[in-house]
Design goal:
heterodimer; A: 259 residues; Rossmann fold; 6-stranded mixed β-sheet; B: 339 residues; two-stranded antiparallel sheet; 77% helix
């Protein structure tokens, strides 16, 4: 299919006097893992909020597989198959790990049965068990999600993304705050996922980005500064400037480039 | 079956036997006034359950449930006194009126959350309280409406009605038990899990595809139904309806009962309601400031046992019972997984 999985057309979002996303144009073809990088305040998370319906754009349109999804509500967008994680880990803290997965699997259905016991739904229960095994949380299935360690919550979030069977997954800094070992585990899962799902990832850890991304888009001040493969981006002068500031002295750039 | 399940089922069984024996047991132990007091506790605990469904299961704190209780009462009273309806049509009118009212007010109220939601529910209930007080032609104003009780069932010449204390008690017990059973079904269903997800984290709930507005409205209408059934029962129980039961302090009492008993648990509201009504009955004849005890207890529970009395009980159970079970389970698990 030639239709890009996500096409962004002149998207604008202003907060008072600040233009967080400024006439953003993007076209992400399917089948590849996209990373969005950029300095703090570049508008990356705002961009995710606009795509997932948590914010309404002031102008411009968002197309998902050719369908205009601008202005839809978050749950409507989610039901079309776009799932996202939040920058700050976010699960249902008082529900058990298994129930977190269970409700995520069921949330897309139009009708939630009000009287039949949830436990009687064997199909969903089996899916939950499979995902628990995949993310390695089977032994913690009945624990309240709020009592998990940070790394386990991150795994649960990935499990929730998996069980929802998304067509497009938006990951907002998935490795933020993780230990090196946890990061490694998460990166492995993301790479596995990327084989079957289109993924857009916002990430600050450059090592992770250059390891997993097929395409990289660099945002600065609300619009696209550069985009291309990892080699192109790492060689791009403008990207270095955006990250490191305009060089006043060549030594500084040399030093930073080798750091 | 785990040790915990055995204890809980035994308690539930004993409780059910006690409730069924009340009309014969209580008059011989205390006096027959306490039978109707227990019936009253059942009605008010259903009202507290409506607060609990909202606060404990979907995270909306309503200070205006008395509005729907009042609609249930007036539906019955106006149905009998002015429209000349029989028992069942009047009961239906009360429940339908309160459920419909919950739907209409809910459309606006559930757009808001937290204190904004609490405030708008109070505002709605105050508006209708003042309307009820002033529209004397319909509601009887301050005097309320007294009506004579129609029979619940009539077979040929024999009639069964609330004039029989035993029948009244069992009718109320059956209705409240049915409503709590329905509530239990809902909370264990896919819909109930969706409610909990919205309570826990509404942003995340919308991102996984849950329509949080629709779910909150559904819960609000269900809570209106429960409050309406409670109000209709109370009208039959007291043979009258009065605007004073629509005032917001009635709503506030239900919030205290539900939270002290244990929000988010099926029996919490029943425990809280029973505790406070029994205290009121025992103390109020000797001491007029009995509400001081209520206040102190509410503060203590909120600070020391945020999940209420039932929550405290269940965490005690898990400390002493589940630990043993967990040990047994992990041992069994090892046996199974070890090659």
């Amino acid at each position: 299919m030639s239709e890009p999985v996500l096409r962004i057309d002149n998207l604008v979002k202003r907060f008072g006097g600040l233009t967080a996303v400024d006439h953003l144009n993007l076209s992400l073809p399917g089948g590849r893992l996209h990373a969005i990088i950029g300095p703090n305040g570049a508008g990356k998370t705002t961009f995710f909020n606009l795509v997932s319906g948590m914010l309404r754009p002031d102008a411009g349109r968002v197309f998902f597989l050719g369908r205009d999804i601008t202005g839809l509500k978050p749950h409507e967008i989610s039901r079309l198959g776009i799932k996202r994680t939040l920058q700050i880990k976010s699960v249902f803290p008082q529900m058990s790990v298994a129930d977190n997965l269970w409700i995520t699997a069921q949330a897309g259905s139009r009708f939630l049965h009000p009287f039949r016991p949830a436990a009687r739904d064997r199909g969903t229960a089996e899916r939950v068990e499979r995902i628990l095994e995949q993310i390695g949380l089977t032994s913690l299935a009945s624990r309240a999600a709020g009592t998990l360690s940070y790394g386990d919550v991150a795994l649960l979030e990935i499990g929730m993304a998996l069980i929802a069977q998304p067509r497009l997954l938006l990951l907002d800094e998935p490795t933020c705050g993780m230990s090196p070992a946890e990061t490694e585990r998460a990166v492995e899962k993301i790479q596995q996922l990327a084989r079957s799902i289109d993924i857009v990832i916002i990430e600050h850890d450059m090592e992770v980005v250059f390891e997993i991304a097929d395409d990289i888009t660099v945002m600065a001040q609300g619009s696209v500064l550069a985009s291309g493969g990892p080699e192109e981006i790492s060689a791009d002068e403008r990207v270095r400037e955006a990250y490191l500031g305009r060089p006043e002295d060549e030594d500084y750039v040399e030093e930073a480039a080798h750091a | 079956m785990t040790g915990r399940a055995i204890i809980e089922r035994t308690l539930l069984g004993a409780f059910a036997v006690f409730m069924l024996a009340v009309p014969w047991l209580i008059p011989s132990l205390v006096n027959s006034f306490w039978v109707s007091l227990i019936a009253e506790i059942l009605i008010w605990s259903l009202f507290a359950a409506s607060v609990n469904l909202l606060y404990g299961y979907i995270g909306l704190l309503s200070f205006g449930q008395a509005l729907y209780f009042g609609f249930g009462m007036y539906g019955v009273a106006i149905g009998i006194d002015q429209l000349g309806l029989g028992f069942w049509p009047a009961f239906g009118l009360g429940v339908v009126a309160s459920t419909a009212m919950a739907f209409v007010t809910g459309i606006f109220a559930v757009r808001l959350t937290w204190h904004y939601f609490a405030i708008i529910t109070v505002v709605f209930s105050l508006i209708f309280y003042f309307l009820a007080v002033t529209q004397k032609w319909l509601t009887g104003g301050d005097d309320g409406i007294n009506f004579s009780l129609p029979p619940t069932f009539s077979f040929g010449g024999t009639q069964i009605s609330f004039t029989s204390g035993t029948f009244q008690y069992f009718f109320i017990l059956a209705t409240v038990a049915l409503c709590l059973w329905l509530m239990q079904c809902v909370t264990r269903s896919p819909l109930g899990k969706a409610f909990l997800a919205v309570r826990d984290n509404d942003v995340r709930a919308s991102l996984i595809g849950l329509n949080i507005y629709g779910l909150r409205l559904t819960a609000f209408v269900m809570a209106g139904f429960l409050a309406g059934v409670a109000g209709a029962l109370f009208a039959f129980f007291g043979r009258y309806a009065s605007a004073s039961y629509m005032f917001y302090n009635v709503s506030g009492e239900a919030v205290v009962w539900a939270i002290v008993g244990g929000a988010g648990t099926l029996f919490g509201p029943l425990v809280g309601t029973a505790l406070f009504i029994v205290i009121r009955e025992l103390v109020s004849t000797h001491w007029e400031h009995h509400s001081l005890i209520v206040g102190v207890m509410a503060i203590l529970v909120v600070i020391l046992a945020p999940r209420g009395i039932v929550g405290l009980w269940s965490s005690l159970l898990s400390r002493f019972i589940d630990r043993g079970d967990a040990r047994a389970v992990s041992a069994a698990g090892k046996l199974r997984t070890d090659p």
